[in-house]
Amino acid sequence: MNILYLNHYAGAPSLGMEYRPYYLAREWARMGHRVHMVAAGFSHVRSRQPLHDGAPLRAPLQQAIDGITYHWFPAPAYRGNGVGRVRNIGAFLGRVWRATDALITQIRPQVVIASSTYPLDIWVARRIARKAGAKLVFEVHDLWPLSPIELAGMSPNHPFIRLCQWAEDTAYRDADVVVSMLPKVHDHMASHGLDLAKLHIVPNGIDPDEWAGTTASLRQDVATAIVRARAAGHSVVCYAGSMGLPNALDTLLDAAALLRDAPITLLLVGDGHERERLTARVQAEHLNRVQVFAPVPKAQIPALLDAIDIAYIGWQRVPIYRFGIAPNKLMDYMMAGCAVLHSVEAGNDPVADAGCGLTVPPESPQAVAEGLRALAALSREDRHRMGERGRGYVQAHHTYPVLARRFLAACGAQEG
Predict the structure, then answer these.
(1) 2-205+399-410 — its CATH code?
(2) What is the DSSP code (8-state) at residue 317?
(3) How far apart are CA 187 and CA 13, in angstroms?
(4) Does residue 416 surpass a pLDDT of 60?
């Protein structure tokens, strides 16, 4: 089967996030399907951008990665979530729209997936699918425009939000299949016109190959910090992932201030819009047991998580999480066998479901501090048992070979 996967932010192990499109596409390619990934030449979530002869793209570029054919379309660079990002989205979608006939001629798609986080790609995907006579699939990562309204405080009457709402309603009306990573979206989608018979839940997951055999050695600066913390008799707590406002890292730093005298070292490993500000806050408040590091390569994540005692993930207290959460980093934490402190109030809670840690209220430094103290006070054996429950849960429900088959089954497709 020929699959055209339209995802603005699609990445690959050599480029960085987003990883979900890559992992699903790679599994489909292994099944014998022909998968073409259509993505933008610039994305803020990638650690590296695709290049042509060492320079940013000025024309479309085709590249084969692990059995997937990537079609990179130029899009201007940007920072933050302002006009520059909107210009980037518009440029990408406009170029793909104009390339519709060429893509159909080359790919002859039988399934077209719109999967760019924002819903505006539905019109491009619908055009391709209709002209090709293909099945149209809409994949939901986050609920747009509800996410920027509730997380970023944008007005429902903002022109961009109104455009996104039109796109979301169009997607629910015209898609043949809707796949959601979030598990509690039924009422919301039905209220915007979706026939729930079209809806299928396929959450995030992990690649079991990355956790098999010998893992890459951890970068020396992070490894040294962990060794020194251990030598001081400290438990090591780690947050590994993007550093943005939705990750509630200020709550973790507030908790660190309450834990100044506790034998606990906190590591923040990652990048993002808030990294510089958080680093400055650590220094200004003399949080000497908090250390901030640049992101480690994805191949080193297993080694990082294997070396720590407790993994942390936090969320803001916002109503949108009533629809559920599907964080990649939590899947990594659980697959690594970490005991997890989860600061959340949401429609689902994988940590509680798996019994692999503690869940505490969000945006409560006191609750986070008490949770970290409680997990640090457990024996290594008790934390290990928690971690094993998490690993078993992920292996049963959240590996990409399992999820890729569920996705194709939702599309009514068979393995190649």
Answers:
(1) 3.40.50.2000
(2) -
(3) 36
(4) no
Q: Whose CA is closest to 199, among 139, 133, 141?
A: 139
pTM: 0.86
Alpha-helical segments (H) within 153-286: 159-174, 186-191, 220-231, 249-258, 275-284
Alpha helices by DSSP H, 290-364: 301-307, 328-335, 350-354
Topology given in CATH for the domain delimited by 209-397: Rossmann fold (3.40.50)
Name 217's Cβ contacts closer than 8 Å, sequence gap at least 6. 223, 300, 303
CA distance 398 to 364: 29
**pLDDT (0 to 100) of residue 401:** 95
Give me the pLDDT at residue 79, please. 86
Reading the block at residue 35, the tokens are 């998968």
Q: Give ∠ CA 80-81-87 in degrees, rounded to 5.
A: 105
145 cis-preceded (ω within 30 degrees of 0): yes
By CB neighbour count within 10 A (0-12 exposed, 13-18 middle, 19+ buried), where does 93 fall?
buried
pLDDT tens digit sequence for 120-155 = 999 999 999 999 999 999 999 999 999 999 888 899
Instruction: Report domain extents, the chain.
Output: 2-205+399-410, 209-397
